[in-house]
Design a protein that fits this description.
Chain B: InterPro entries: ACP, ACP-like_sf, PP-bd_ACP. Chain B: The modification O-(pantetheine 4'-phosphoryl)serine is found at residue 39. Chain B: Belongs to the acyl carrier protein (ACP) family. Chain B: It holds the Pfam family PP-binding. The complex is a heterodimer of chains A (408) and B (79). Chain A is an alpha/beta fold and 408 residues long. Chain A folds into 2 domains: 7-248, Peroxisomal Thiolase, Chain A, domain 1 (3-Layer(aba) Sandwich); 255-407, Peroxisomal Thiolase, Chain A, domain 1 (3-Layer(aba) Sandwich), CATH 3.40.47. Chain A contains 13 helices and 15 strands. In chain A, strands 5-4-6-7-1-8-15-14-9-10-12 form an 11-stranded mixed β-sheet, sandwiched between helices. In chain A, strands 2-3 form a two-stranded antiparallel sheet. Chain A is globular. Chain B has helices at residues 3-18, 39-53, 59-62, 68-78. In chain B, α1 crosses α2 (39-53) and α1 (3-18) packs across α4 (68-78). The radius of gyration of chain B is 11 Å and the shape is globular. The model of chain B has no long low-confidence stretch (mean pLDDT 95). Classes of the chains: A alpha/beta (408), B mainly alpha (79). The interface between A and B is small, with 10 and 8 residues.
Chain lengths: 408, 79
């Protein structure tokens, strides 16, 4: 079977580590943390008073009137999408809009807009509620805005699978191109919910780190002292392109998106399957889809969020699905957990690891858990040849997504 | 309040809500055709004007307010 090859020709991101891909990648390789104390007054009452906030606020980058109409998750998706679009050299390429698609999701969506407008409703009544409320809070808002600004007419999709959203959106983009519905797809995720309600909700689940006095040391995947994730905000967008289309226009290619595996646990709404059965199947499907051997996957950007149970379940799954040879990292140790954008940011890190031959570090891995039986690039970056790599993302609801990227 | 003062107040609102250059705001200008104010922004303009000038502008009146001058006359009559 002569299957359509899909490559990555553009990257864009705004994250707690930097306002673009280059600065984010530099910060990762240097092992910097994007987490800090929440100094807002509303944080005082919360059990969790740390987060990984954007390094560059969108307010200075977009027109003031436009910002009135955008939820923060939409604003940063647009910033990342424009970066990726420019990076791919598509601006004046004459791309047919009917061959351009969008697949951009969010884990939680416009919750901050919803809550802010509810405050206005309670304080001043319904007439004061902004007429932009609905397009700001609708979950397809970020994808729709990206499609609108770049003129995409091949279909605009918004996946929602909690913390697997970004990766699943990329997998959907791959499907769109393979199915012949688009030549180019902007794919990724966005999230901006650093607000007391989502924080209180996650904190009530006991899912978040309460290491409030040491924000930069709070996200510590696989370390014995880990006590939950650190909430981050940001957006990451990839330009996926049919390989022949990219070659015809002489585009620079970062890597190949060789395969994807998507499964669902059917086990529990928030707990991962204890033996990681769904994760194992997702990884195995991704490898089979990519037509690579297990041994070819020498690096894994793990989902590892710094929670006591999840981090170890993933180790078990990786050992079963891949073996004991890959070098792992958990970049959430630096970026925090970007929820619906995590899979997109971590795909970008995986792609750049392949390009540059370097695994970014997992910081704060001072006292590894006894169950950590795989090799991790602990605390400093590791240079090595990476012909193929895997990125895992798992989400509440039992969503498992694995992506395989290979050198183009 | 004079008509010029009301026009200046509307110009401030239009700049805040819709990014309209205050120098472009004059009584003869149409909100939609000349100042590019779309229907959602018009809703914001009306609510902000009610607050600023202490008047009520019911929805069935808004459709009659085609130009800045129409709005100035309505506000002048109500206040």
């Amino acid at each position: 079977m002569n299957r359509t090859d899909v490559v990555v020709t553009g990257l864009g991101a705004t994250t707690p580590l930097g306002g673009d891909v280059a600065s984010t990648w530099d910060a990762m390789l240097a092992g910097r943390s994007g987490a800090s104390a929440l100094t807002q007054e509303w944080a005082e009452q919360l059990p969790v008073r740390i987060a990984a906030q954007l390094a560059v606020d969108p307010a200075g980058l977009l027109d003031r009137v436009k910002l009135r109409r955008l939820d923060r998750s939409e604003a940063i998706a647009l910033i990342a999408a424009h970066q990726a679009w420019a990076d791919a050299g598509l601006a004046d390429s004459g791309l047919d809009p009917e061959r351009l698609g969008v697949s951009v999701g969010s884990g939680i969506g416009g919750a901050v807009t919803l809550l802010a407008q509810d405050d206005i409703l309670e304080a001043s009544g319904p007439r004061r509620v902004s007429p932009h409320t609905v397009p700001m809070l609708m979950p397809n808002g970020p994808a729709a805005w990206v499609g609108l600004e770049l003129g995409a007419q091949a279909g605009v999709h918004s996946v929602a699978s909690a913390c697997a959203t970004g990766a699943e959106a990329i997998a959907l983009g791959l499907d769109m191109i393979r199915a012949g519905r688009a030549d180019v797809v902007l794919a990724g995720g966005t999230e901006a919910v650093i607000h007391p309600l989502p924080i209180a909700g996650f904190a009530s689940m006991r899912a978040m780190s309460t290491r409030n006095d040491e924000p930069e040391r709070a996200s510590r995947p696989w370390d014995k002292g880990r006590d939950g994730f650190v909430l981050g905000e940001g957006a990451g967008i990839l330009v996926l392109e049919r390989a022949e289309h990219a070659a015809a226009r002489g585009a620079r290619v970062y890597a190949r998106l060789a395969g994807a595996g998507i499964t669902s646990d059917g086990y529990d709404i928030v707990q991962p399957h204890p033996e990681g059965a769904g994760a194992i199947r997702a990884i195995s499907k991704a490898i089979a889809d990519a037509e690579v051997a297990k041994l070819d996957i020498v690096h894994v950007n793990a989902h590892a969020t710094s929670t006591p149970v999840g981090d170890m379940a993933e180790i078990t799954a990786l050992r079963t699905a891949l073996g004991d040879h890959p070098v792992l990292t958990a970049t959430k140790s630096m970026s925090g957990h970007l929820l619906g954008a995590a899979g997109a940011l971590e795909s970008i890190a995986t792609i750049l690891a392949i390009r540059d031959g370097v695994v970014p570090p997992t910081i704060n891995l001072d006292d590894p858990d006894d169950g950590l039986t795989l090799d991790v690039a602990a605390n400093k970056a590791r240079h090595m040849d990476i012909p193929a790599a895997l990125n895992n993302s798992f989400g509440f609801g039992g969503h498992n997504v694995a992506l395989v990227f290979t050198r183009a | 309040m004079t008509r010029d003062e009301i026009t200046a107040g509307l110009a401030e609102i239009l700049e805040e809500v819709a990014g309209v250059n205050p120098d472009d705001v004059a009584e003869g200008k149409s909100f939609t055709d000349d100042l590019d104010v779309d229907s959602l922004s018009m809703v914001e303009v009306v609510v902000a004007a009610e607050e600023k000038f202490g008047v009520k502008i019911p929805d069935n009146e808004v459709q009659n307010l085609k130009t800045v001058g129409d709005a100035v006359s309505y506000i002048e009559a109500q206040s």
